[in-house]
Design brief:
Layout (H helix, E strand, L loop, with lengths): L1 E7 L2 H12 L7 E5 L6 H11 L16 E4 L5 E5 L6 H6 L2 H6 L4 E5 L13 E7 L4 E7 L21 E4 L7
Helix pairs in contact: 1-2
Length: 173
């Protein structure tokens, strides 16, 4: 399967990618984020929520302890963190599959690879990885859908180039 990858320099570029994704995602869509601690997952969510008119007094914080935050944006954003969840059964017990399927929110899931069976097949996966002077970002769609449309996203930074790669997909790790 092919994915596309780019390199982002700085927090602003990561937030800009979130804003670009906000322009093409909507209710019923799922954005599955993976990557190590500090890779920029919450930063990307902040850019996405701000682009969807998040009120300035509402902070975007990783819901590590609360599991879910819902942001009052133009398209309601359900921000989920699976880091502390024990597995699919626990996710089902708290109603996450129903929330992802309700068609009302744009679900953004941090640590999606911790409970891959929870993530709908149509999800857009984003892997963020540390690099020496930047962060590598890989986009892939679940179910093998073509992700080349993302090359036309407004660049998170001038001159951003997306490269097609054949690599393990984010949910394979």
């Amino acid at each position: 399967m092919t994915a596309i990858r780019t390199e982002l320099v700085g927090q602003e570029a990561t937030e800009a990618l979130g804003a670009a994704l906000a322009a093409v995602l909507g209710p019923g869509d799922v954005l599955a984020l993976v990557g190590p601690l500090g890779a920029g997952k919450t930063t990307l969510v902040r850019g996405l929520a701000n682009a969807l008119d998040l009120p300035p007094h509402v902070p975007v914080q990783s819901p590590t302890f609360t599991v879910c935050n819902e942001y009052p944006t133009r398209v309601p954003v359900l921000h989920v963190d699976l880091y502390r969840l024990g597995g699919l059964e626990e996710a089902e017990d708290i109603g996450l599959p129903e929330r992802f399927a309700d068609g009302r929110t744009l679900a953004v899931i941090e640590w999606a690879d911790r409970v891959p069976g929870l993530i709908p097949e149509h999800a857009l996966w984003v892997r963020l990885e540390h690099a020496p002077s930047a962060r590598h970002v890989t986009l892939a769609e679940g179910g093998g859908a073509d992700v080349s449309w993302a090359r036309d996203l407004p660049g998170p930074a001038e001159g951003t180039t997306w490269t097609a790669i054949d690599a393990p997909m984010p949910w394979d790790s």
